[in-house]
């Protein structure tokens, strides 16, 4: 049985939101952001959408 993240179900602090924005800006993978913030990937996606933060990589070639 997998362990739930540390911050599961807890409100997001201003520091958490700032960290999410910074990590997304640095093109950090969603899974890594979740691990660093102690949140699930779904929580990262939801909060990013709420804050208007794009999680799409900005500097990758479409041709691999």
TrEMBL record:
Superkingdom field: Bacteria
Protein name: Uncharacterized protein
Source organism of the structure: Halomonas lysinitropha
